[in-house]
Predict the 3D structure of the following.
Amino acid sequence: MGLPELLVAPFRYPFMARGLLAATMVGVVCPVVGTYVVLRGMAFFGDALAHAVLPGVAVGFLTSHGGGRRSVFWWALGTAILASLGIGAVARRGRLREDTAIGIVLAGMFALGIALISTVRGYAVDLVHFLFGNVLGVSGGDLLLTALLGGLVLALVLALYKEFLVVSFDAILAATLRLPVRLYNGLLLILIAVAVVVSLQTVGVALMLALLVTPASTAYLLVRRVPAMMVLGAGFGVLSGLVGLYVSYYAGIASGAAIVLVATGFFVIALFAAPRRGLLWRRRSN
């Protein structure tokens, strides 16, 4: 089998083509939003949201009697948004550090999710797909939903880019400009929540944080400007999805895990070889 045949063969199957489209869309949305997660040191928050959707996943299965992933999706989305706003409220009104509030909400939501999942024994296989992803099971409706919500997230990030940047990195300037800091912070948390839930089908709850953080972190090692970091991070996200699907097809491993492993491989290469920030560059400079 020649190289052209090796490249084309996997995508002769409709489910592989749909999986590629899903991985591409998620590969763009997550690193763009993940840029703020990385620069603001919010990785723990992203991890908390990824696990906080478990109660929504379980309730979606219970209310739909195990059928209809759409019900699970909307319940998970509602739960993620509620958790993101709840973390902010607990930190603000309880006068706690944000990481403490995240830990409290994460523990409570995750425990609730486990408790609910334990009652849905008949649908364990379907729940595993949400825990570890099933990009090859994406339907046409899933693609449409991902495109609509992913497009909305990207449109808001683009439209409010300057506001998010000021609020995130210069609180004094934000106050001088009289920007509604709490509103923009809340909106950013909601966008992260949407990105998390949109990615459930691709990599699942267990691997979600990697897709949100790893491509953006790889780009952070290579460029210095935020727009370039977003664009390059999206490029790494898309490439990770494409290469990951090839690895999944030919190596016979789970697609979500393959995508994350490829993304991690890109990060390791950048960690060693990135100009000025890479380990090899630093060693040469010393």
Remarks:
- The mean pLDDT is 83.
